[in-house]
Specification:
Residues about 150-155 have low confidence and may be disordered. Strand 6 (about 210-215) and strand 7 form a beta hairpin. The protein starts with a helix and ends in a 7-residue tail after the last strand. It has 2 domains: about 5-75, 434 Repressor (Amino-terminal Domain) (Orthogonal Bundle), CATH 1.10.260; about 140-265, Umud Fragment, subunit A (Ribbon), CATH 2.10.109.10. The protein is an alpha+beta fold. The protein has 6 helices and 10 strands; from the N terminus they run H-H-H-H-H-H-E-E-E-E-E-E-E-E-E-E.
Length: about 270
């Protein structure tokens, strides 16, 4: 027996948050027909194939069996078959998920095996180098990369840490005493310091004449230059003849640190 009120309630639940037109479009059923069913205006129950279309587009766990039950077509034998079908669909879904998880696990395993092989090859290379008389550098320190620093026109010094790097400690420093900066510009090319190189800088407030330092000028601009003290003033000298020296008052030039090493990419052409 067709229970119009029950079927109407199930339709409204199956519609969910969608508009009636959207629900009807997804179910491939006339919107006016669904509206009449919702308002209990149809005396005759919809056909099974129409009910199946509505069930396939239903939200909120409204099932084909629920709708068939509301129109009086759900026999005990049909309910048993539909329940079994639901179980089989669930098993199929679980199988597909397990297959996906297994594929992902295999991908991760391949990555892990590749990393292991890389590590083994690197270890073998180190052993071969030691057999040839090479010495192992045992100490590394962590240094922060503090953004770009202009080796030319002064730019605002960005003190924010971009990343942390590990470098060989060949200068007997502790963490917090060294930082790294990326060179920008060409004013120090005479010292083989090029645009894009990294310089390691030891934090210190004073440098001797002729040493290369990172200097804050007027508290906001930073530059990489050779330093020379001249009668209470500081002369900032570029190692590129196209740049003139810059003479500043001592109190306007704060030494951030002394350049102790240049790191460059040997594959980059200058």
């Amino acid at each position: 027996m067709f229970n119009k009120a029950k079927f109407s309630a199930l339709l409204k639940l199956a519609q969910g948050n969608r508009s009636l037109n959207e629900f009807a479009r997804q179910a491939s059923v006339s919107g006016s027909y669904i509206s009449n069913l919702m308002n209990c205006k149809n005396e005759n129950a919809p056909e099974a194939k129409t009910i199946k279309k509505i069930a396939d587009a239903a939200h909120n766990d409204v099932t084909y069996a629920d709708l068939l039950d509301a129109v009086g077509l759900l026999t005990s034998d049909l309910k048993e078959k539909l329940d079994r079908l639901a179980v089989l669909k669930g098993l199929d879904s679980d199988y597909k998920k397990a297959e996906t998880d297994l594929n992902q696990a295999n991908i991760e395993l391949e990555k892990a095996n590749y990393l292991v092989k890389e590590a083994e090859a690197e270890y073998k290379n180190l052993l071969d180098l030691e057999k040839m008389g090479a010495k192992t550098v045992g100490n590394f320190i962590r240094v922060p990369l503090l953004g770009n620093i202009a080796a030319g026109l002064p730019i605002f010094a960005n003190e924010n840490i971009i990343e942390w790097e590990y470098v060989a400690d060949t200068f007997g420093a502790a963490e917090g005493e060294i930082f790294s900066l990326i060179v920008k510009g060409d004013s120090m090319t005479g010292s083989r310091i090029y645009n894009g190189d990294k310089v390691l800088v030891r934090i210190q407030q004073e440098v001797a004449d002729g040493e290369i330092a990172v200097i804050n000028v007027d508290g906001e601009n930073a530059t990489l230059k050779r330093v020379k003290h001249v009668e209470g003033k500081v002369l900032l000298i570029a190692d590129n003849p196209k740049y003139d020296p810059i003479l500043v008052e001592s109190e306007s030039a704060r030494v951030c640190g002394k350049v102790i090493q240049v790191l460059f990419d040997p594959n980059r052409r200058y």
